[in-house]
Amino acid sequence: MVQPATELYLVTGATGQIGRRVVHQLRQQGQRVRAWVRLGSNYQDLAAVGAELYFGDISQREDIWTAMSGVNYVISTHNHPKHILQIHLKSNLHLIEIAHKFGVECFTYISGLGVDQYARNAPLLEAKLVIENELLNRGLNYIILRPPLLNHYLLLWLRQLQKTGSLILTGDGHLRHAWISLDDLANITVQVTQNPAFRRQILPVGGSPLSRWDLIHLYQKLTQSQPMIIPVPLHILDGIRWGLQWLQQEEDLGTLKTLFSHEFICSERDIKQLENHLHIQLESLEQFLQRYLGLDTEDSKYSNPK
């Protein structure tokens, strides 16, 4: 007879691209999951698989305190690029503080490649680096995963291509990023959280490096289409940022400029080491796109993650 799960996972950002997949994978294992969701978001599938829904304001300490009751593991995936200080930075600092007070077994945080190199003038990277340092200094068991941050925009770009047949390509589209299947990233997140051997480590997570032009060519190959690509010089972002500074929306543009100006890749050694330790083989981006675009024999169950 299978014993019921007794440990409880708190997943923040549970309706996001990574959080949703993490919740589904944990529930497939029969784990107890408290999914932090927003009112008005698409959370019906999380309820359908048996996750406990928690409605709260991630920026409020009292809501975090209530959510932490009985929790053994915290997996922080929430992100809000236009409210970096309040929603991303402060909420994660409060999560870490309260998780430490509750004595949670492990705190897993989704950071990003390059935060230790390119934080200057990139508020999201700077915030993630501050959160990493808090985890390192708090005395809490932690796991920090660093996937490529442009991964967050992958499905947004695909949806734009599907809907409009066009894509704005900002900056040098030939710079490479270590794109990774979102399903693989969720699987890695769950596995390392459950494996004590990965405690107190910072793990680069990514696949073989590809440029944004490579992605466009993959899309053309898979869909047999010729989307209209609109190149936009990187310096245009500076003008946009100056024009929007009074609206306090410049944070995301500063981060985007940084992400479009550098390569963010994992070494082959890092990739193989992760695959060997977790006994997995990372899905190629082409395979992931086939499933997402519905071109494979089995569509991805998360093809509309938002």
Written account of the structure:
The chain has helices spanning 17-28, 44-48, 61-67, 84-102, 123-138, 151-164, 182-194, 212-223, 236-244, 250-261, 268-278, 285-292, and strands at residues 8-12, 32-37, 52-55, 73-76, 106-110, 142-146, 166-170, 176-177, 201-204, 210-211, 228-232. It has 306 residues and is of the alpha/beta class. The chain has one domain: NAD(P)-binding Rossmann-like Domain (Rossmann fold), CATH 3.40.50.720. The longest helix is centred in the N-terminal third of the chain and has 19 residues, at 84-102. Mean pLDDT is 87; it is low at 242-251 and 297-306.
What is the topology?
Elements: E1 8-12, H1 17-28, E2 32-37, H2 44-48, E3 52-55, H3 61-67, E4 73-76, H4 84-102, E5 106-110, H5 123-138, E6 142-146, H6 151-164, E7 166-170, E8 176-177, H7 182-194, E9 201-204, E10 210-211, H8 212-223, E11 228-232, H9 236-244, H10 250-261, H11 268-278, H12 285-292
Parallel strand pairs: 1-2, 1-4, 2-3, 4-5, 5-6, 6-9, 7-11
Antiparallel strand pairs: 8-10
Helix pairs in contact: 1-7, 4-5, 9-10
**Fraction of helical residues:** 40-55%
Kindly name the structural category: alpha/beta
| Uncertain residue ranges | 242-251, 297-306
CATH topology: Rossmann fold
Number of extended strands: 11
**Count of separate structural domains:** 1
Q: Mean pLDDT, rounded to whole units?
A: 87
